[in-house]
Q: What sequence folds into this?
């Protein structure tokens, strides 16, 4: 009788031991591990332990690549360290993983524009405005790009949509052939 109990206990331990690796890889466990790593990364970043924070963010994103907050925080950290190319890759990943998020496309366009790009941010802003047409910040940014590219009529339409009087006066003056104010 006692022997049967020990045998049953042994079988249960073996089954649990065999199932443990699968449980460790289960989605709820992955989510918890990723959240814990992202939290540790934020703490490391606030303590200015940048290398540790970057490593922890990347570990968290390996477990949950779709984690918008962790990816945004990593992009902000990379940007603060002067690694704009790595920040750009993270923002592009956000836009790819969350194509319904207009903020992702606006952030991507801002960084591209800061680095002298014109056509790529215009395309990103086109997407952002398709998703959320009532974004004056995106219209204002796209109007500036279109002015730089010589697309004055389109810039004027964006200036109207942005309700920006200074930008509207500039585009109106250009379209009328006068010197902009």
A:
């Amino acid at each position: 009788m006692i022997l049967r109990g020990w045998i049953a206990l042994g079988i249960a331990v073996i089954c649990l031991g065999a199932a443990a690796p699968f449980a460790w890889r289960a989605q709820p466990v992955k989510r918890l591990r990723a959240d814990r790593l992202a939290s540790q990364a934020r703490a490391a970043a606030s303590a200015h332990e940048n290398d540790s924070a970057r490593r922890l963010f990347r570990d968290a994103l390996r477990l949950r690549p779709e984690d918008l907050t962790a990816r945004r925080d990593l992009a902000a950290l990379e940007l603060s360290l002067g690694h704009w190319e790595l920040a750009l890759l993270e923002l592009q990943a956000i836009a790819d993983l969350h194509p319904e998020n207009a903020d992702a496309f606006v952030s991507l366009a801002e960084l591209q524009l800061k680095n002298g790009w014109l056509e790529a941010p215009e395309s990103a802003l086109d997407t952002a405005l398709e998703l959320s047409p009532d974004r004056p910040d995106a219209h204002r940014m796209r109007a500036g790009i279109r002015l730089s590219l010589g697309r004055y009529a389109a810039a004027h339409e964006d200036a109207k949509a942005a309700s920006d009087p200074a930008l509207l006066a500039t585009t109106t003056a250009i379209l009328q052939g006068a010197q902009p104010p």
Summary: Residues 146 and 154 are 7 Å apart (CA to CA).
